[in-house]
Amino acid sequence: TTQPTMLVPLLLSPLLPRLVAGIWTTSQIDFEGNTRSYKKYVPSSSGVNSGLMVFLHGQGGSFDVSSDYQVDKYAEIFGFVGIVPNGTPMGGSGYEWNIDIEDGPNEVSFIHAVIEEVATTHNILAGTPKIALGFSNGAGLSSLLGCYDSSDLYVAHVGVQIKSNADFPSTCGGFGVGGKRLRRRDSTVNVNSTWNAVGDQDFFIDSLEPTPVEGLLNQFLSLRDASGCLQEDPSETFGAGFTCYSYASCPELGQLCVYDNTPHVIRESMTPNAWAYLTASGVQYNTCYDQGWAPVDGCSETTECCAGEGQCQNSGPPAKRGCGSPSPTPSPPGPSPPQDCLPIGEKCSDDSICCDGSVCDKGQGGKKCRNL
C-alpha cells in the first residue's frame, strides 16, 4: 500500500500517466514473511530515467534520516528517485541493518527487492545509475551492495554503485571466501565506484595515530600499496568544510572525503557529493572546481552553483565559475604593433614603418605598405 506523507503541488510526468511526482510516499513490501517499509520521493523536475539513490540509516535510526540527507531537495536537482528504507526492527525502538549474522535477515536481498519494485513502477532504465549511500551501520550495508570491503578504512559513510550480483554473505567483487578482502588489482572495477567519508571528530577514527586524520590517510595509502597501484601522492579537492582525496592510478579505491569539525553525523552535502562522484559527473557540489569552465545557457556565473558538468542549480553557495565544457586556453598574444605604423595599403615613404610585417614597396599606385 502507498500513502502520501507530504503534500506539495502535483505534476504528472508525460511518461507516467496516473503516477504523481514531486511528493513523498510510504510503501510496504512483503519480504521473508515480514512487512517491510520504505519511503520514496519521485522528483517533479526530471521524470524517470536519471536513476535512483538509496539512503541507509545508522543503527537505531529510521527512514526519517531522509531529512538529514535532504533527499527531496537533491532528487529535484539531480533527477534521481530517492529511496529511504527502514531496516529490521530492533528490540526497543528504531531499526538496524543485519550485516554480520549469516542466518539473519538478508538486507542485501531486501534492498534488491525494493529497487526492483521502484524501477518497475517508474520505468527506470537498466543502464541508469543505482547508488546507495549509507551511514554507520548503513555504511556496512552499502559496502555489501557495492561488493566493497571498507573494513581497512575507518569511515562512517560509504557510497557505492549498487551491483546486481551483490549477495549476503558476500561472495562478489572485492570479497573472497568468507568475506576476506582480495589483495589484488581488479581490472573490471568501475571508475568512481566507491565514495568514502568520515568526520574529523568521528569516534570511528579516534584510535588512529599520530592523529585521527593522519592515521586515516595512512590507511588510504596502505590500501594503495596493497592494491599494487603506483607510488603517488593523492590528489586533493577542497570543498566548503571538507577535503577529498583520491589516487589517479587506483580507481578501485574511490574517493575519501574528510569533513571538518564533524562528529558521527550526516552532513547535507554528502548526498550531492556522493551522487556527483559515483555518477562520474566530475564536479564536487558547492565547490564547482575552479577550472575555468565557460558558462552554459541558463547558468549564471556568479549566482548559481554547479551540480554537475553541463548542469546548473538555483540554490547553494555561489559558483566560482559557470558550468559547462572547459574553456579553451587562450593563445598568448603576439607582439604589439609599433606605434604610428602604417596599415597595409597605406601610402608610405622610405622612412615609414609598416604594420603587421609589411614593407614599403613601390608598385602600381606608387609606394604602399604591402605584404611581399
TrEMBL record:
Residue numbers spanned by region Disordered: 322-343
Alphabetic keyword roster: Signal
Transmembrane stretches, start-end: none
Keyword Repeat annotated: no
Signal peptide location: 1-22
Name of the featured protein: Feruloyl esterase
Bias-annotated ranges (Pro residues): 327-340
InterPro entries in the cross-refs: AB_hydrolase_fold
